[in-house]
Write a structure and sequence with these properties.
Blueprint lengths: L5 H8 L8 E7 L6 H11 L5 E7 L6 H11 L3 E5 L6 H10 L5 E4 L11 H9 L5 E5 L12 H18 L11 E4 H7 L10 H9 L5 E5 L14 H15 L6 H27 L4 H24 L8 H30 L4 H24 L4
Bound molecules: guanosine-5'-diphosphate-alpha-D-mannose and manganese (II) ion.
Subcellular location: Membrane
Main location: membrane
EC number: 2.4.1.83
């Protein structure tokens, strides 16, 4: 029974007796069977700490958000952010941390692979001002990732090396999904972070460029309790994009790099189609070139919809509308490309530089306009 007497209501309306110390941010996608248990584990691990947990759910089909809402109704330490029309681990973590009012925020997986018993230690390192960022590390003495199969262990090791070398990062486990950070420091970095991809910690470390005092604490990466991993081959692409973006000091964005990569596959598709239509179907050049351009644009559109903009993927009828708009954007892009190339060429600059300038103009135009009109944020 809920006590609705005026006295009881007044008590509930009081500000918290102890100010909030820690928000635990948990991104979720199809984790219905894990969230309750995680909550109870946090409760046990954080006795004596004023904490809350913010689940950021991307409208999971399994109804994770409904389970969390019910928890939140019973206990205000559980909070739920339900995002609609968006997908992505990094973006979910960013929104969760920004929704917190606590001075410190932790990020951890919902599937109980991270060790919640480390949280108190991580918090005391931050509260004593010994660090700005504490990482739960698999790759230092005392930590491990035994639950990984050979293949994933190998990939993880290579990716870690690449990140460390390319971005001059000294942290042993920059790809960990388990960390705790001062919220004020995070808030400063947030506008520069990528909402796409899986590697939020790597992004935070690279974006901070040495301005964070980092401490690693060892933990054992356990096995997933219920459900399955959402890590797929796309994650590798996102990862490379992130490293390139940070390597270029954010001159190149992850999305732009993916868009340009897709564009270069389009060149290949174009020439293959041109060859097939010309040689195998023996059509005249103008027709063949037209078909090749159409096929290349269509394949670019499909790839961009699956890769570059997979967090905003167009579905159903929106695909047709998007495709037509994409043709339009690319058509104008081609004019811009040729125009710029001509202008440069007329300045008596070598043909290949003029061509490159045109191509660059084309891809920048297509990218900017596609973002505005084809995959615009609803
Ligand atoms: N909101 C939201 N949106 N949450 C997501 C999404 C998404 O698109 N994708 C995954 N999640 C949630 C999962 O529900 C889970 O709670 C957490 O993010 C981690 O996802 P997993 O699918 O369990 O990833 P993993 O265990 O394979 O990878 C973990 O370990 C890696 C280190 O090897 C993650 O912590 C990675 O960030 C980490 O790099
Ligand atoms: Mn996991």
């Amino acid at each position: 029974m809920i006590d609705a007497s005026p006295a009881a209501v007044a008590t509930r309306a009081q500000p918290a007796a102890v100010p909030l110390q820690l928000s635990v941010v948990v991104p979720t996608f199809n984790e219905r069977d894990n969230v309750e248990l995680l909550f109870r584990k946090l409760e046990a691990a954080l006795a004596g700490v004023a904490w809350e947990v913010i689940f950021v759910d991307d409208n999971s089909p399994d109804g994770t958000w409904q389970v969390v809402r019910e928890m939140a109704r019973r206990d205000p330490r559980a909070r739920c952010i339900r995002r609609i029309g968006r997908r992505g681990l990094s973006g979910a973590c960013i929104e969760g941390i920004l929704a917190s009012g606590a001075p410190f925020a932790a990020v951890m997986d919902a599937d109980l692979q991270h060790d919640e018993t480390q949280l108190a230690k991580m918090l005391s390192l931050l509260e004593s001002n010994a660090a700005d960022l504490v990482i739960g590390s698999r790759y230092i003495e005392g930590g491990s990732a035994d639950s990984f199969d050979r293949q994933r262990a190998g990939i993880s090791a290579i990716a870690t090396q690449v990140a460390q070398k390319a971005l001059k990062i000294e942290v042993a486990d920059p790809m960990s999904g388990f960390f705790m950070i001062r919220r004020d420091r995070f808030e400063q970095l947030a506008p520069e972070l990528s909402t796409q991809g899986f590697k939020i910690l790597l992004d935070v470390i690279a974006t901070a460029r040495g301005s964070l005092r980092i401490v690693e604490v060892p933990f054992t990466f356990g096995s997933r309790l219920h459900g399955e991993s959402k890590l797929d081959s796309m994650v590798a692409l996102d990862f490379l994009g992130l490293v390139l973006a940070k390597f270029s000091h954010d001159v190149l964005s992850l999305r732009f790099i993916l868009f340009a990569l897709v564009g270069s596959t389009g060149v290949v598709v174009h020439f293959v189609t041109l060859f097939v239509v010309l040689k195998l179907f023996e059509q005249p050049f103008a027709e063949a070139q037209g078909v090749a351009a159409l096929v290349a644009m269509t394949s670019n559109f499909i790839l961009n919809n699956f890769l570059t903009y997979r967090d905003q993927r167009l579905k159903g009828f929106a695909i047709v509308r998007g495709l037509l708009l994409f043709y339009l954007v690319c058509g104008v892009g081609l004019l811009a490309n040729v125009g710029v190339a001509f202008a440069v060429y007329n300045e008596h600059i070598t043909w290949w530089l003029a061509g490159a300038a045109g191509a660059l103009m084309g891809v920048v135009w297509n990218y900017a306009m596609s973002g505005l009109f084809v995959w615009r944020k609803r």
